[in-house]
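Journal club side-thread
Mid-discussion, someone asked how the predicted structure for our own chain would compare to the paper's figures. Pasting it here so we can look after the session.
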Amino acid sequence: MLIISINDPRAIIHLITSGESDRIERTVSVSNTDKFSEAVCAFANDFPNHRQSGYLLIGVKDNGTLSGLKVTDDLLKNLGALRSEGNILPPPIIHIEKKSFPDGDVAVVEVKPSFFPPVRYKGKVWIRIGPRKAVANEAEERILIEKRQVGITTFDSCSLAHSTLEDIDVELFKHHYLPKAIDNELLERDTRALSDKMASLRLFDTTAKTPTVAGILLLGKKPEYFLPGAYVQYVRFGGTGREASVLREVKFSANLITMLNKLDSFIDTSLVERKPVPVSVLREEQVLNYPYWALRELLMNAVMHRDYQSNMPVRLYQFDDRIEIMNAGGLYGNARPENFPNVNDYRNPIIAETMKVLGYVNRFSRGVSRVNEELLENGNGKAIFNFDLMTVFEVTVHLSNDYLTQVSDPVSDPVSDLLKVMGKENIPMKRADLQLKLEFKHKNYFLKNYLKPALEQGLIEMTIPDKPNSRLQRYRLTEKGSKLKQQLQNK
């Protein structure tokens, strides 16, 4: 059976009336999402290796007659969500059409064979065995793995020469990732070797007997040894251009499962600043310089979509008026400047799948739209995407106007930060130690914005006031500074 186009009414009639087949599933249900997803997963795996589409027909009885269904927009929207909601991984290629006949409507879901089997729905690999579907056993899953290795097309699925299982953090795989990626019931019965378990998730190449690029990136003990650009570089500039002084620099270098957690915390604690603004006598609201979720989504996208063959790290640059995020590799595959962000494609489908499993990606194809909604609501304006750099992808987020226009407290944020790091027992501290606690490299910036204002406001004092430049000079809180520090801690 060869179906050329589901736009051809004669082809649809043939699908409806033909006998039982492992490429067709009929159902009269309109709300059984599990059944729909299992069918899509099985067709995507193409276990019989037809190399042709499978078809889910909604509104058709098993005997080939129509149920009288009226296909609604909500039903079509729910069917489209099967691809984007992230429960079927890697995401399937599907095409949905509504066809109307005198006896009722039919919703046709065409599913293309996946380039990256095995495909899972909620951790289970579904396949077609004749006209029925079932969960694949270990032998059947191995066949799917071997089929994928024949048709490898992305860099993250390639074997990584000279790497071995010794380069993998096995405990991280067993206890952190595997329980989230595989259904618990199946995991308890799985007696396969470690390499086979990794291969089922596209993290190990059983033919080359080495981890894949994705395996090293996600679970490697030292990914940078094999892939020199596999890290994130954060730089805080003390101005609005790259010629400004570097105030702080942080390198995030680890396997992605570890790094993503560190980046998540860093965004919340180091990039997002909050100002309390009174909205009534009894209530305050927080005004943010940047919304946490929007920054997180943009940075996670850079990690997920970057070109890992490049030695360039992901760059996270913060200026006084904006944040820039840049990654190697421009738009990929079907994504073009004219259709972005409505159309996307995956340079690293295995990494994308892992980030969904770990909860760093909520819904495929939805992120950028929600980012712009949050940025607009926070007063930042929409993210600015630069498609002109060809070999890299860059996005810029400007500082919130709402944050800028709020009247600051009499004590500036830098001075508050300085008071917070002063010792509990008010032991005098050297300037260099205070600067180190605040993680600033630039001495003049620290003196101008932190130390001098605190001295002028009488919040700290010198231990040798007659010799301000003495090498023995130390700084301690005044009584006024101690009281203010206590107030700040009680907020």
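Post-session note: The radius of gyration is 28 Å.
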